[in-house]
Amino acid sequence: MIHEILMRLPISTRHSFRSYLLVLIQLLCLGGMVITGPVFASRAIYVGLELLGIALGIWALVTMTVRNLTILPDIRAGSPLVTHGPYRYIRHPMYTALGLLTLALLLDAFSMERLIIWGILVGDLWIKLNYEEQLLIRHFGEYKDYQRQTKRLIPFIL
């Protein structure tokens, strides 16, 4: 039913609604992780995983530059296709960073509640990633070549 309503909306409205919905789910999941346990890992291995996620996220942000940054999957007009820095190895380093960071929090203070929230977050990010890739293919003619040269989330694997 919701899908039918969305399909009746003009494409620009549909894209914006989908983008905002995906980001809302992402933010709600992050909030859920925060309120269901500690936000800093206590065990060394998970601290390392958390720091790896933070470092990758910062590297991706610096590479992307604030001017081109948006939390929405939509492509900003005039934005270039970024293929250097961590984007040289993976197409979505910010999603990988978020996954690593929240995985560390899940494993360090495991609960079924956190596992469900993390599962929803991963599912949401996967849907958002696929949607964003559709938009990137339409916007950048060279994106298909870039896809063939890089992995989505994990260098050399996925």
Tell me the layout of helices and strands.
Blueprint: H1 2-8, H2 11-35, H3 44-64, H4 93-108, H5 112-139, H6 143-149
Helix pairs in contact: 2-5, 3-4, 4-5
Spatial extent as radius of gyration: 17 Å
Low-confidence stretches: none
Count of extended strands: 0
Mean pLDDT over all positions: 91
> Class in CATH?
Mainly Alpha
Biggest pleated sheet: none
Number of discrete helical segments: 6
| Helical residues, percent | 55-70%
| N- and C-termini, Cα separation | 33 Å
H/E topology pattern? HHHHHH
Shape: globular
- Number of domain modules: 1
Q: Indicate the CATH topology.
A: Four Helix Bundle (Hemerythrin (Met), subunit A)
Structural class, from helix and strand content? mainly alpha
CATH architecture: Up-down Bundle
Beta content comes to: under 5%
What are the salient characteristics of this protein?
single chain; 158 residues; Four Helix Bundle (Hemerythrin (Met), subunit A)
Q: Can you walk me through this structure?
A:
With 158 residues, the chain is mainly α. The chain has one domain: Four Helix Bundle (Hemerythrin (Met), subunit A) (Up-down Bundle), CATH 1.20.120.1630. It is built from six helices and no strands. The chain has helices spanning 2-8, 11-35, 44-64, 93-108, 112-139, 143-149. Helix 2 packs antiparallel against helix 5 (112-139), helix 3 (44-64) runs antiparallel to helix 4 (93-108) and helix 4 packs antiparallel against helix 5. It is globular. The N and C termini lie far apart (33 Å).
